[in-house]
């Protein structure tokens, strides 16, 4: 259902790779809500993924950019202003990648040059995006910028590896830049902390199936889907949230406030089943 929440607004969506991508869902919803957008991803992603098809579907130009390159980002903002007819009102940063995770390097045996890449792609790119946009005047006053994050930035979750450090930095950049951009241009900068979601990036997380099941059992509302995340992004881009800034906004069905739930406890207790005697007592020895 569309509410015209973004009628007349212009935006840039970074990070749509395929139909599973959270950014893909956000792009579709943004256009449904009346926005005109451009899409951006790396040259490899444009070649290997399905973003060109999405561009045709949404009448959105696809602009190639490596988000670690300031020059590429300048081009995205300049070109977007050209094709959309002025500064943009919203930007989505939906970018994450850890070469250490890809190469299965555990957290206590990280390759430091790969760690630099993780941080550059997944966190510093957000600063580069904001700084570039601000210098070019590419985000209109009262605009809204959202980046996607994960609860592992604040609490330790098995297997999230150096992406946890990248997300902690991403959330910090949202606060630090949000102060300056808010003060000078009323631009708000937030991160949305999303439930585990089965996407290309998500499936790289160690034990993703179990993690999703655990998070789902722990969350009173269950895991938030990519479509639901898109809805939340739209609200954050709309004029209904003009005084929300510098926040990590949890979109996780309640997971981040839980300690233990009945459904998770029930599953946990099953792990003792094989150690019960005939009377049902747990055998500890
Ligand atoms: N899937 C989850 O469980 C989950 C949970 C919380 C947060 N997130 C975050 O959501 C965001 C989107 O991920 P997703 O789950 O939709 O997966 P995805 O794989 O569809 O999206 C990740 C995107 O990052 C892009 N990317 C990688 N390196 C880049 C670079 N150098 N320059 C520009 N783009 C680059 C990829 O091409 C891809 O489009 C990420 O920040 C991710 O960490 C995901």
From TrEMBL:
Protein keywords: Fatty acid biosynthesis, Fatty acid metabolism, Lipid biosynthesis, Lipid metabolism, NAD, Oxidoreductase
Annotated protein name in UniProt: Enoyl-[acyl-carrier-protein] reductase [NADH]
Biological process terms in GO annotation: fatty acid biosynthetic process
Claim: Repressor is one of the keywords in the record: no
InterPro entries with a match to the protein in the record: Enoyl-ACP_Rdtase_NADH, NAD(P)-bd_dom_sf, SDR_fam
Pfam family, one: adh_short_C2
Source domain of life: Bacteria
GO molecular function: enoyl-[acyl-carrier-protein] reductase (NADH) activity
Statement: the UniProt record of this protein carries the keyword Ribonucleoprotein: no
Swiss-Prot/TrEMBL catalytic activity: a 2,3-saturated acyl-[ACP] + NAD(+) = a (2E)-enoyl-[ACP] + NADH + H(+)
Enzyme class: oxidoreductase
Natural source organism: Candidatus Avibacteroides avistercoris
């Amino acid at each position: 259902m569309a509410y015209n929440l973004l009628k007349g607004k212009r935006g840039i969506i970074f990070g749509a790779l395929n139909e599973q991508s959270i950014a893909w869902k956000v792009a579709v919803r943004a256009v449904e809500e009346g926005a005109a957008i451009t899409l951006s991803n790396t040259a490899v992603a444009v070649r290997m993924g399905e973003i060109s098809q999405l561009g045709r579907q949404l009448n959105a130009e696809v602009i190639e950019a490596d988000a670690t390159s300031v020059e590429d980002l300048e081009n995205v903002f300049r070109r977007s202003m050209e094709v959309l007819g002025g500064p943009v009102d919203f930007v989505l940063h939906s970018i994450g990648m850890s070469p250490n995770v890809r190469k299965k390097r555990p957290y206590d045996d990280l390759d430091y040059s790969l760690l630099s890449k993780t941080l550059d792609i997944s966190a510093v790119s957000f600063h580069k995006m904001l700084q570039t946009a601000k210098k070019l005047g590419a985000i209109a006053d009262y605009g809204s910028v959202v980046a996607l994050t994960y609860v592992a930035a604040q609490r330790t979750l098995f297997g999230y590896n150096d992406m946890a450090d990248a997300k902690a930095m991403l959330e910090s950049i949202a606060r630090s830049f949000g102060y300056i951009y808010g003060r000078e241009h009323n631009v708000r900068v937030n991160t949305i902390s999303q439930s585990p979601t089965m996407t290309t990036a998500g499936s790289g997380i160690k034990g993703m199936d179990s993690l999703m099941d655990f998070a789902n059992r722990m969350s009173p509302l269950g895991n938030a889907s990519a479509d639901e995340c898109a809805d939340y992004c739209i609200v954050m881009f709309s004029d209904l949230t003009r005084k929300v800034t510098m926040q990590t906004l949890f979109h996780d069905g309640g997971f981040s406030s839980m300690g233990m739930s009945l459904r998770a406890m029930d599953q946990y207790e099953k792990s003792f089943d094989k150690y019960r005697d005939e009377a049902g007592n747990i055998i500890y020895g």
